[in-house]
Specification:
globular, Lactate/malate_DH_C, NAD(P)-bd_dom_sf, L-lactate dehydrogenase, six-stranded parallel β-sheet, about 20% strand, alpha/beta
């Protein structure tokens, strides 16, 4: 079976996603789309120049929406990262730009006859994922966002550093909005076979500090190079591969939760049919309250986006 992936938006993140897919041979066919025609053609040629030295071959198509018709997955990586250069570290600063761009792109995706899955990276990702689903009319479980898959990885990195472990040895989730209202659900975090909350005092861990480190990780990277790309691109490709390979992996991704009436990050099992099952966590009352706050905030911004006359 041929694996076909589209990447829309070839900035720092989209080009990193595309490079990871080409270098690792994750797709047979790759469709690259960007408004900057010269840039996307240059990327395509650069990837083709790399192929003689790679163990895989990838067929590349440029700026052709009709080529998305039979794609398995489309990754939305469009955005304007410069708008996030604000003192509040606020991903919603990008919304006026991205909601307008996404409304156009989602319509073109719909017109192409695309029937696959959409993985959104574009910020603010929970609102943008909702917009893609509404405009394309695809089933809710076929449209998902990277959400807190990245924030959870940042939390694992922070915890693992303190305990001198590999981050893959830490289990647990950051939940809610991929933004300022997200939080680490410490009741879900386990390490060395035990809940982290049991080990925290013994190991001298400040959970509040670790939570802040996970939340501000992206801002720290952004301050250093004015964009982030490797962490989020890796999260997106992990999600793409879970769909392509039908791996049925449980991941904290932005998915539509009926009880909140909105897209937010909560663990879900991802496979070829998108979100195939949703986890039900046993959260503390405080965590449930934080999740509700996150949901309300996302819902408010989504409603604003629907009413905006862009």
């Amino acid at each position: 079976m041929t694996r076909k992936v589209g990447v829309i938006g070839m900035g720092n993140v989209g080009s990193t996603v595309a490079h990871y897919i080409v270098a690792m041979g994750f797709a047979d066919d790759l469709v690259l789309i960007d408004k900057n025609d010269a840039k996307v053609k240059a990327d395509a040629l650069d990837f083709e120049d790399a192929m003689a030295n790679l163990p895989f071959h990838t067929n590349i198509t440029v700026n052709n929406y009709s080529a998305l018709k039979d794609a398995d997955v489309i990754v939305s990586a469009l955005g304007n990262i410069k708008l996030q250069d604000n003192p509040n570290a606020d991903r919603f600063a990008e919304l006026p730009f991205t909601r307008q761009a996404v409304k156009e792109v989602a319509q073109k995706i719909k017109e192409s006859g695309f029937k696959g899955k959409i993985v959104a990276i574009t910020n603010p990702v929970d609102v943008i994922t909702s917009l893609y689903q509404k405009i394309t009319g695809l089933p809710k479980n076929h449209v998902l966002g990277t959400g807190t898959l990245l924030d959870s990885a940042r939390m694992k990195r922070a915890v693992a550093e303190r305990l001198n472990l590999d981050p893959r040895s830490v289990d647990g989730y950051n939940l809610g909005e991929h933004g300022n209202s997200q939080f680490t659900a410490w009741s879900t975090v386990r390490v060395l076979g035990r809940p982290l909350t049991e080990l925290a005092d013994k190991r001298g861990l400040d959970l509040e500090e670790l939570d802040k480190e996970a939340k501000m990780g992206g801002w720290t990277v952004f301050q250093g190079k004015k964009y982030t790309n490797y962490g989020v691109a890796t999260a997106a490709v992990k999600l793409v591969n879970a769909i392509l390979s039908d791996s049925l992996t449980e991941l904290p991704v932005s998915n539509f939760r009926e009880e909140y009436g909105v897209y937010l990050s909560y663990p879900a099992v991802v496979g070829r049919d998108g979100v195939v099952e949703q986890a039900q966590l046993d959260l503390t009352d405080e965590e449930l309250q934080k999740l509700q706050t996150s949901a309300d905030f996302i819902k408010e911004k989504y409603q604003e986006s629907l009413q905006a006359k862009d």
